[in-house]
Amino acid sequence: MENYDIIVCGGGTSGCVVAGWLADNPHLRILLLEAGGDDRVPVITDSRVWMSNIGNQYDWGFRATSQPALNGRTPPLPMGRVLGGGSSTNGLVWARGHKVDFDYWAEVTGDPGWGYDAVVDLYKQLEDWDGPPNSRLRGSGGPVYVTRPANPVPVAHGLVCAAQAQGIPAVEDLNAEAMEQAGAAGIPNVTVRGDHQRVSMATAFIRPRMDRLNLTVLLGTTVRRLIMQGSRAIGVECVRDGQVQRFYAPEVVLSLGAINTPKVLMLSGIGNAAHLWQHGIRTVQHLPGVGQNFQDHILLAGCVFEYRRPEPPRNNSAEFTFFWKSDSALPGPDLQPVLEEKAFGSEVTGPRYNLPVDPALCWTLAPGLIQPKSRGSVELTGADPDDPVRINANFLSEEADVNALLRATELCREMGNAPELREFVRREVMPGPLDTTDMNTFIRDAAGTYFHQTCTASMGRDERSVVDGSLKVHGVQGLRIADGSVMPRITSGNTMAPCAMIGARAVRLIQSEYGM
């Protein structure tokens, strides 16, 4: 058909939640458009091989421009291009975010529906939690199966003990009270069921509803621009099988992610008027914040240790993490190092330290920064939808981020060399003891993305915001955004769960308007 009630652009983490839950109303005709293909392939469904998705056909293949603060490097910015999006290609960690994050969202939007207590209720509706019961904070019976890795690699338990020795408390559930406090260490929640089967948002929300006559899912369909009638979005223009097609609906939801959502907005005349004018695009709505405020978590590759006895990776190959503050005065944690169950180096640090290829020989505690001060941007390079965007991630442009990562690296090295891990460590491979100047260089050569691009169409009430608290684009009718781009500030932890929650909030907002 050409006409629907709601068009959801992007079958990623948020889009699957939006389309799936809205399709429960048989009176709504839902169209879900996804540029990628079928998610039912082993490299996606098997949780153990997720790293193979970085740079393969299921990745958009974005790269940042040359980053001065990374010694001129151009880091890749992986983003899922398949039904389920990042939830089909990522490391499967379900991390909700900290109380401070959501109370900040509520403050900047003036909407208590984004506050911590409200989003906990949304998370509870999403989850089918298979772990320590907690009726106040955890949900059961929801569509997203969440558990903890079965039989983690032994070094993970050693790391929990080493974290405790550093004063970081160990907890059974990193999504419970730990997200209301200064931080904690433990085995992360993951979206894995049974024998290494990934539970993506496509698995949870779309596959069970594929037989519904009111839900149409088109794969291999790339959204080019919105169809505008004055200041109202009335549909979308797409390319499918090499042909331009148009679909119409009174409500359009953009869930294309923090790179493609601002691209489609700008190509449709919604963005900074001066930037649009440069590319000959007529301005429909001047919103200077479109494509700005780009944020991502920074992951260093990494603090590597050689095993005494080889140990192959297990489960999702990332079975330990901790949240902590680089400065005790901070309101919430800004660090999240993570275990990588192999030698993990960048294109610079890997060759420099001659890291082994065999994943059983080494393990890595990768320092992570989850509240960066640096801000980047996404801009057009031309008015043709096939023209690439220019992504200036602006990583480590703020000295505070380098200082926080120095502290994170110090913590990771102390833990890796601690007595609690002696049975797992033959030697420290990378970076070893370095003076301040050399460690600073190491950090800039090792820094990359945590695969959590966000914040380029952020919620708020000021002149730099793009959507309001109900996810409606300022000054545009019939258009909402529901994906990680609407975060005003990135959450403290992996972003799959918050993106699913944003999708859930979008559903509730739409349902209330439709009287559902």
In CATH's first tier, which class of the domain at 69-75 and 133-198 and 295-449 applies? Alpha Beta
Overall radius of gyration? 22 Å
Number of helices: 13
State the fourth-level CATH superfamily of the domain at 69-75 and 133-198 and 295-449.
Answer: Glucose Oxidase, domain 3
Summarize the biggest pleated sheet. 5 strands, parallel
Shape: globular
Q: Structural class per helix/strand content? A: alpha/beta
Mean pLDDT level? 97
How much of the residues is beta strand, in percent? Answer: 15-25%
Q: Order of strands across the biggest sheet?
A: 10-2-1-14-28
The total count of strands amounts to 28
CATH architecture assignment name of the domain at 69-75 and 133-198 and 295-449: 2-Layer Sandwich
Question: Helical residue percent?
Answer: 10-25%
Taking pLDDT < 50 over at least 5 consecutive residues as the criterion, the unreliable ranges are none
In angstroms, what separates the terminal alpha carbons?
Answer: 24 Å
CATH topology of the domain at 69-75 and 133-198 and 295-449: Glucose Oxidase, domain 3
